[in-house]
Amino acid sequence: MMATTSIKLDKKEKSFLDVLWNLYVLQNINVKKAFQLKIKNEMLSNTYDEATEYADSDITNTAHYVEAMKDVEEGRITDYDSLKDFYNEMGV
Fold first, then answer.
1. N or C: where does the chain have the smaller number of CB atoms within 10 Å of the terminal CB?
2. What is the DSSP secondary-structure string of 25-36?
3. pLDDT tens digits, residue range 16-39?
């Protein structure tokens, strides 16, 4: 069975957390479980201060975000019907 997924960059995504959440939602159950275990193990191995340090970062202040938004504004984006189509175009 093949699933069709439309992957688009949303201008409303203002934080790294929003981007990660949208990536997470697109995954199958096995990948979601692996993410959950990885996050749980990471949180248990860090102190509270180290874990919250990343929560303050704002993706909109990065050069990559500014570049990506410029690409969106100038129409340099590509939609794919599936991840398979994306990988095929990338030559993977």
1. N
2. HTS-HHHHHHHH
3. 778 778 888 888 888 889 888 888
